[in-house]
């Protein structure tokens, strides 16, 4: 990859970046590839990168109907953690967290990982019991998590109001390795690294159909930029996964909902970690620009829109104002929504499908960003070898038929 001296970087900056080269090529579709990835978010770009870097597939393309990072990867609240309840989930998310810790070095791109800690609040006896169960389950799986008293929680996050509140804080779980990363940088870093390995990243290329041969296996995709032949297709299209899979005759147990977030005007560094409250239904962190990043819950209706009901955002802001009274006078700059795809057990599907050559990575609901490198890594393995990696082996489509559910509704917490 191209490197520049500090003096060269300064000179380029002073020219208004006019001399900067694009971070990846504007590739045109070729007639055929060894594998295609549908979806240019973090999971899709990451899978393409690992297909090229670890599995040596020489002809790989990523098809994105819009622009790179324009879907959920660029529309989330950037939180990273691995304190999920069940063994299968703990293995998957901690695999991702371990990859996060070295991702900037692997991609030679600063993804701005900040392991500032993620704290989950308990407000009643049920919360205490559920969260302590998570702490013990995580420790049994070698995942860091610890219980804090209300006073210890306030020490870790001084702006937190623990007593003068409708739902007093009784304690909290803290995963110190959790934190945040820059969502745009993750997409750009994977895109640049994949491009350097020869992956074609094709934007403004919407898939309109999936062709199957006489034996039922995939053989090509139809796009707005022509037909592209391939024996392997990996679908990582987030909230639109069910739409894409229907083109191949595959139905999935997914529902798509809007999920909203907001940011405030920027202020000086005042918030040291990530705080989540499932009972009060809000979570908050502070960005590097000083904005408070606030997450709300999912809307109550299915939709493919990237906006949601105003009352959902209002409810989240009410909760934040109770938990952190010092923020009550802050002005909000903007809000937005993403489209999340939920499975019945709130755990993802990373698997082969009944159609030979067709693979799917979906159903992340509100937790997809934190799993990005781990999900992409095992998805690439599954596509390249036509068999699951041991980590994603439990996350099949067939589990909904056979009853082997991985119910992470509680661990998904307040919708992220």
Report on the structure:
This protein is of the alpha/beta class and 416 residues long. The chain folds into two domains: 26-79 and 183-253 and 345-402, 3-Layer(bba) Sandwich (FAD/NAD(P)-binding domain); 114-179 and 255-342, D-Amino Acid Oxidase, Chain A, domain 2. It is built from eleven helices and 19 strands. The protein has helices at residues 6-14, 42-53, 87-100, 103-107, 125-140, 150-156, 183-196, 241-246, 310-323, 372-385, 399-402; strands at 35-38, 60-63, 79-80, 118-122, 146-149, 171-175, 179-180, 200-202, 207-212, 218-223, 226-229, 233-235, 255-264, 274-277, 282-286, 292-298, 332-342, 349-352, 358-362. The strands form four sheets. An eight-stranded mixed sheet has the order 5-6-4-14-15-16-13-17. It has a six-stranded mixed sheet with strand order 8-2-1-12-19-18. Strand 1 (35-38), helix 2 and strand 2 form a beta-alpha-beta unit. Helix 2 (42-53) runs parallel beside helix 7 (183-196), helix 2 crosses helix 10 and helix 3 (87-100) packs across helix 10 (372-385).
